[in-house]
């Protein structure tokens, strides 16, 4: 998550104090990602050094020091909003790594490992669904976060189902029937405007 760009977005609405930025960030992200005020001020200092924000002339950081976005900050924000995140390579995912490792260990029941994770994810989805029913009409930001989390968890459950099936089929194939060389992933695809 780009805290620096989120802070630039909030400052694009007008000058704000650090504490105010923290409160607005949390409110606009459904209060799902708490933000420490020290992180806000550290990020603001970096943005100021980069010329993307300006502060009041007070010598010390604190709740009364105001910040505003610069024209360079506006340009940075506009570019960030229109640049897709780099999704060209798969993220290092602990669950995927666990299943890959378990699939090659001789004394591990991979199906049981997959099902244990699947049960946990389904339980999480049920909890998020209850939250969605509670908050969907009251808080747009929280509802959007809940939707994103439900879609993400659903995709992980689907991947586990696909992995379980693929591992079972691979166990039935005779040794040496798999290709000797794996295809390479494409290099990063630049999407910057």
């Amino acid at each position: 998550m780009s805290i620096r760009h989120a802070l630039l977005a909030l400052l694009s609405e007008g000058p704000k104090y650090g504490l105010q930025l923290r409160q607005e960030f949390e409110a606009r992200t459904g209060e799902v990602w708490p933000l420490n005020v020290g992180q806000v001020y550290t990020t603001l200092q970096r943005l100021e050094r980069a010329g993307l924000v300006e502060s009041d002339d007070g010598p010390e950081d604190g709740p009364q020091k105001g910040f505003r976005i610069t024209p360079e900050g506006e340009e940075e924000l506009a570019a960030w909003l229109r640049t897709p995140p780099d999704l060209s390579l798969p993220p290092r995912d602990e669950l995927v790594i666990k299943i890959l490792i378990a699939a090659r260990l001789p004394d591990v029941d991979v199906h049981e490992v997959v099902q244990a994770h699947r049960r946990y994810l389904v339980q999480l989805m049920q909890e998020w669904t209850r939250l969605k029913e509670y908050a969907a009409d009251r808080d747009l930001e929280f509802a959007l976060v809940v939707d994103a989390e439900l879609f993400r968890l659903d995709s992980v459950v689907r991947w586990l189902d696909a992995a379980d099936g693929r591992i079972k089929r691979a166990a039935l194939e005779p040794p040496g029937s798999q290709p000797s060389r794996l295809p390479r992933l494409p290099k990063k695809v630049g999407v910057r405007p």
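Residues 140-172 form the longest helix (33 residues). The helical segments are 3-11, 18-28, 37-49, 71-82, 94-104, 110-135, 140-172.
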